[in-house]
């Protein structure tokens, strides 16, 4: 909209080559199994696959029929089966069942598993244990980078978050390193790399390792600066309700791989339609980063302009009409269609949000962020629990847990929660605690005692690592201190004009500047972590800043790749776009997945088999 | 089935599930409609493929790397090592045979990732490609790997090295080998001081569903709460409600924290009750004698529902029962120590749903010692009005509660929202605000009782209007 962009913003590199690369690799792999074959695709690979190839591409390479992996016996009659899957034990076990069933029935077929983005040893162990190692050939499709938009690249690995931060499994570290390596080999070399978080550091090291292994050709860099950040550095931001248009659409309708399905309430017909949401959609592109309160005004202005444009044809002669129809009408119609779609979406969101007392929810969240009126917040949360409001909408609860919690309140809220949503959520609570999202205040001594007890058991080197592990376990909520130090919560007595945002806080109605983005801003400004020592201490360290010995190119330097390990939200992307406009940067977001509060909480659920 | 503009794989697969007959399927694929949806307009796919394969090689060296791996670690079906032709040769070989790599001298060393090869050959820095370090005979190279590490010290060194590389895949690979080659006791003992490796091991056991071993591990580590939770989680697999109940009963004595033990006890008690209630109610429903089940047939069984849902159910179907029965709301409230507010919200919602306004009224009515009645509520009256309106309560019921909202502004706002005109009117009268009242006159129906009331007030000389 009416943002004053700095004119000298550098141009973003072209990411379409990434798609072509992935597609060609896939074709290459499919050709490794010559002849007609049926292809079984893991459900969550379908949307990513849609973005880079289509059915006829596969057909051209002798894929006969396509099936979704559903963990059921297969009905395929083909004598060659190919499985395109994520490296998960459960899926491999299912493939084993398929193969063993065929064997038992005396059918002889050829099988191939294509793991993407890589295979894991544990998966092959399953093949071995099930007695079909050797009957099945395996391959890797190194499909790491899926460009979702001109400035968003997605790894589409939502499990990265849980595996890494909850389970403490580093299986995706190398994947992260490889993804960065691939990006680096096309758009690098990087001259500056900053980062914060344990995982970021490991990914950085894995990438360096891979750079050393391969040779590097001297090339003109397109992207010069990289910032790596762990999701657990900032849990608060993804737990907040989103109020920027794109984030709100994601919270309500769930954007999947850059595509959203609008139901009948949006389309005002009896059909649902799938819509791609990206910068190609001109209307969307103008409102995606806007605070929701501005969107209606903008859309109605747009509608009026459209009307005027249509009205032009009155009083035209035949010739003028002809040019109008051939040149403008198509564009207008397209705009018309998009406009009515987004107006429909906005209306539907308005309705839903007023129903759920959205204003109150936001007020509660803001109070929690400021640390004011905590009693009111508790009773708001309590009331929602009592009324069994969907627990996914109870993110302020976790927000509250995270920002500090008295044991008495914790016990009472937990008890009510279990009563409303089922006792099996005991498992969810255990997970939240393990993740560090739920911080119960404990007497400070307990940990030190444990630490020294454990310390005696092991030698010094491991003791250091152990302390590390403990400090991350005991991750106290330092949010208040961080918030003060980085002034994340603007003074509430000042008016905040959402139409003319003055800082990144606009993405949360002026109530809070996302911690993750603030860190990025500060580090870029200071060209490193100097002066942020207290902040990094509060964040448990693991920060780094590396400058390569390259001649800096000013343009590439101002194109910054931000890699979120564990996912990022659309609101954060909006905030970075804002920061980019203000400072003359261009940000590219490379994330393991797009996340939001609901997805974050869902990843912690264990109350299913 | 008309093709739409966006051909998605998802769509395709749904289509397949829909189409049962094979003939249909073939028809589908052969029909000319779909040829229109060719992939890009490129005329020569193959040239392009070759080009980008080169690009891939030059860009990231990833493919190259993988081919290297094939060379080193894959063994063809005949047991002969695969030559430098790499993948293509490998595949033409296996075409004639039954499949790839059937016989191998050592299975656990298959396809370890690159980073692991360094540690296999004992090279820490990784600058030297591992290949260079491997002996000419690839069988040896293969045999060199994990099986070579036989003493405990070597195994632990291997594990620590793997952890140092920060590659979870490698760590798990080593752990799988250690699991096969060490006794549980030794392995558990060594893992205790290696947190990173331990967490990988736990995750691996969880994923491969090796429940028993995991329980043993927790026990050995003294992580009793984790052990208890893991065991408790098992109840989710049990579908038979009686078996599940018995299982939950056995969970009560698990080493939970005192607080969680209480919750698990509640879980057991709840299911026990639900089984009784379900059996009785199902009978009552099929018997057709009980009016409420006829009027409002049950949509689902109450088994395994949360406590509050159960309370709602009982407030709906069993409200008037005496405290002695299992299904009486009062009994449930007492047994599970349900907070007053929680009980109120649930009972209110259930009775409002049934439009039992008398019950709603009774919920809030309390008598003081003089025998006067007054309305009391543990939750705000604006909330009460909200719940009632969501259950389509009539204005007569609503206005009673809206009128009890203390805050004047909020009261007027709610009254307007729920169309409780008399509340608005009397509030304006109390405020002595003639202008607002006059304005409101335009909003009520002409000739209605509300209009008459307003006129009556406006012409009342005894009111001293402030404007």
TrEMBL record, chain A:
Keyword Protein transport assigned: yes
GO BP annotations, alphabetical order: protein transport; vesicle-mediated transport
Pfam families, sorted: Sec1
Membrane topology (UniProt): Peripheral membrane protein
Gene Ontology cellular component list: late endosome membrane; lysosomal membrane
Subcellular location field: Late endosome membrane; Lysosome membrane
Keywords: Protein transport, Transport
Domain of life: Eukaryota
InterPro entries assigned: Sec-1-like_dom1, Sec-1-like_dom3a, Sec1-like, Sec1-like_dom2, Sec1-like_sf, VPS33_dom3b
Family under the similarity heading: Belongs to the STXBP/unc-18/SEC1 family.
Name under which the protein is recorded: VPS33B late endosome and lysosome associated
Annotated source species: Myripristis murdjan
TrEMBL record, chain B:
Assigned keywords, A-Z: Cytoplasmic vesicle, Endosome
Keyword Ligase recorded: no
Predominant location category: cytoplasm
Biological process, per Gene Ontology: intracellular protein transport; vacuolar transport
Location(s), subcellular: Cytoplasmic vesicle; Early endosome; Late endosome
An annotated GO cellular component: early endosome
PANTHER family named in the record: DEFECTIVE SPERMATOGENESIS PROTEIN 39, SPERMATOGENESIS-DEFECTIVE PROTEIN 39 HOMOLOG
Protein name: Spermatogenesis-defective protein 39 homolog
Gene giving rise to this polypeptide: VIPAS39
């Amino acid at each position: 909209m009416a943002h004053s962009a700095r004119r000298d913003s550098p141009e973003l590199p072209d990411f379409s080559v990434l798609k072509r690369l992935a597609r060609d690799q896939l074709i290459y792999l499919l050709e490794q199994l010559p002849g007609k074959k049926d292809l079984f695709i893991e459900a969550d690979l379908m949307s990513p696959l849609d973005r880079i190839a289509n059915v006829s591409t596969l057909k051209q390479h002798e894929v006969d029929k396509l099936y979704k992996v559903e963990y059921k016996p297969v009905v395929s009659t083909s004598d060659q089966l190919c499985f395109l899957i994520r490296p998960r034990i459960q899926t491999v076990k299912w493939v084993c069942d398929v193969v063993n069933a065929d064997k038992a029935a005396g059918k002889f077929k050829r099988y191939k598993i294509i793991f993407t983005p890589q295979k894991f040893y544990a998966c092959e162990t399953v093949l071995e244990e099930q007695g079909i190692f050797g009957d099945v050939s395996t391959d890797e499709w190194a499909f790491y980078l899926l460009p979702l938009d001109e400035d968003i690249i997605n790894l589409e690995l939502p499990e990265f978050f849980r595996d890494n931060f909850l389970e403490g499994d580093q299986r995706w570290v190398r994947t992260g390193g490889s993804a960065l390596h691939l990006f680096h080999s096309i758009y690098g070399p990087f001259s500056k790399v900053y980062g914060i978080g344990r995982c970021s550091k490991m990914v950085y090291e894995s990438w360096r390792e891979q750079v050393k292994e391969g040779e590097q050709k001297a090339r003109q860099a397109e992207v010069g600066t990289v910032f790596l950040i762990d999701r657990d550095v900032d849990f608060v931001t993804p737990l907040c309700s989103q109020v920027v248009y794109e984030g709100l659409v994601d919270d309500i309708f769930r954007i999947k791989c850059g595509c959203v399905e609008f139901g009948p309430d949006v389309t005002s017909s009896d059909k649902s339609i799938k819509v791609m949401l990206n910068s190609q959609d001109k209307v969307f592109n103008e409102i995606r980063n806007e605070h929701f309160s501005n969107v209606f005004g903008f859309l109605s202005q747009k509608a009026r302009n459209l009307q005027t444009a249509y009205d032009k044809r009155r009083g035209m002669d035949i010739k003028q009409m002809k040019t109008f129809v051939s040149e403008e009408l198509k564009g207008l119609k397209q705009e018309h269609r998009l406009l009515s779609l987004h107006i429909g979406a906005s209306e539907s969101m308005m309705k839903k949000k007023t129903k759920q007392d959205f204003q109150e929810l936001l007020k509660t969240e803001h109070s929690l962020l400021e640390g004011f009126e905590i009693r009111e917040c508790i009773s708001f949360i309590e009331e929602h629990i009592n009324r069994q409001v969907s627990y996914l909408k109870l993110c302020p609860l976790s927000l509250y847990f995270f920002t500090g919690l008295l044991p008495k309140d914790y016990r009472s809220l937990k008890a009510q929660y279990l009563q409303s949503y089922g006792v099996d959520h005991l498992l969810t609570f255990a997970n939240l605690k393990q993740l560090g999202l739920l911080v119960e205040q404990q007497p400070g001594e307990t940990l030190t005692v444990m630490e020294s007890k454990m310390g005696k058991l092991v030698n010094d080197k491991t003791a250091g690592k152990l302390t590390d592990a403990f400090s991350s376990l005991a991750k106290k909520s330092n949010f208040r201190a961080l918030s003060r130090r980085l002034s994340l919560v603007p003074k509430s007595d000042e008016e905040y004009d959402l139409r003319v945002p003055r800082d990144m806080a606009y993405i949360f109605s002026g109530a809070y500047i996302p911690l993750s983005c603030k860190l990025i801003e500060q580090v870029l400004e200071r060209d490193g972590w100097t002066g942020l020592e207290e902040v990094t201490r509060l964040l448990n360290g693991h920060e780094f800043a590396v400058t390569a010995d390259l001649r800096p190119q000013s343009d590439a330097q101002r194109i910054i790749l931000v890699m979120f390990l564990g996912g990022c939200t659309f609101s954060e992307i909006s905030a970075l776009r804002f920061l980019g406009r203000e400072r003359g940067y261009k940000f590219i977001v490379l994330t393991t997945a797009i996340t939001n509060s609901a997805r974050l909480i869902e990843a912690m659920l264990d109350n299913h088999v | 089935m008309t093709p739409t503009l966006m051909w998605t794989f998802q769509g395709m697969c749904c289509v397949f599930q829909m189409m049962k007959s094979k003939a249909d399927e073939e028809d589908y694929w052969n029909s000319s409609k779909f040829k229109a949806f060719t992939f890009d307009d490129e005329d020569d796919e193959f040239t392009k493929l070759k080009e980008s394969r080169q690009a891939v090689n030059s860009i990231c060296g990833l493919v190259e790397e993988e081919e290297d791996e094939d060379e080193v670690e894959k063994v063809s079906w005949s047991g002969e090592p695969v030559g430098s032709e790499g993948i293509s040769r490998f595949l033409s070989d296996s075409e004639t045979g039954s499949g790839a790599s059937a016989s191998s001298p050592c299975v656990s060393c298959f396809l370890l990732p690159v980073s692991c090869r360094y540690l296999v050959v004992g090279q820490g820095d990784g600058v030297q490609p591992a290949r260079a370090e491997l002996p000419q005979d690839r069988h040896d190279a293969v045999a060199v790997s994990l099986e070579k590490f036989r003493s405990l010290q070597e195994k632990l060194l291997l594990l620590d090295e793997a952890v140092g590389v920060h590659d979870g895949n490698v760590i798990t690979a080593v752990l799988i080998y250690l699991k096969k080659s060490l006794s549980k006791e030794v392995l558990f003992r060594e893992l205790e001081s290696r947190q990173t490796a331990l967490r990988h091991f736990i995750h691996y056991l969880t994923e491969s569903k090796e429940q028993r071993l995991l329980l043993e591990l927790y026990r050995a580590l003294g992580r009793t709460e984790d052990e208890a939770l893991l065991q408790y989680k098992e109840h989710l697999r049990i579908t038979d409600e009686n078996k599940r109940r018995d299982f939950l009963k056995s969970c009560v004595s698990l080493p939970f924290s005192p607080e969680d033990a209480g919750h698990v006890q509640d879980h057991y008690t709840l299911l026990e009750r639900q089984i009784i209630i379900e059996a009785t109610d199902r009978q009552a429903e099929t018997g057709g004698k009980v009016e409420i089940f006829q009027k409002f047939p049950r949509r689902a069984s109450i088994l395994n529902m949360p406590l509050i849902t159960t309370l709602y159910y009982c407030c709906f179907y069993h409200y008037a029962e005496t405290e002695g029965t299992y299904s009486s709301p009062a009994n449930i409230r007492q047994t599970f120590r349900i907070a007053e507010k929680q009980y109120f919200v649930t009972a209110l919602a259930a009775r409002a749903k049934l439009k039992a306004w008398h019950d709603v009224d009774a919920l809030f009515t309390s008598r003081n010692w003089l025998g006067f009645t007054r309305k009391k509520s543990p939750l705000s009256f604006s909330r009460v009005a909200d719940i009632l309106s969501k259950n389509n309560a009539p204005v007569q019921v609503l206005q009673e509660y809206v009128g009890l909202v203390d805050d004047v502004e909020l009261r007027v706002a709610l009254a307007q929202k729920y169309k409780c005109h008399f509340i608005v009117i009397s509030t304006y009268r109390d405020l002595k605000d003639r202008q607002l009242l006059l304005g409101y006159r335009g909003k009520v129906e002409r000739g209605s009782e509300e209009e008459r009331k307003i006129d009556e007030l406006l012409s009342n000389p005894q009111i001293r209007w402030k404007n």
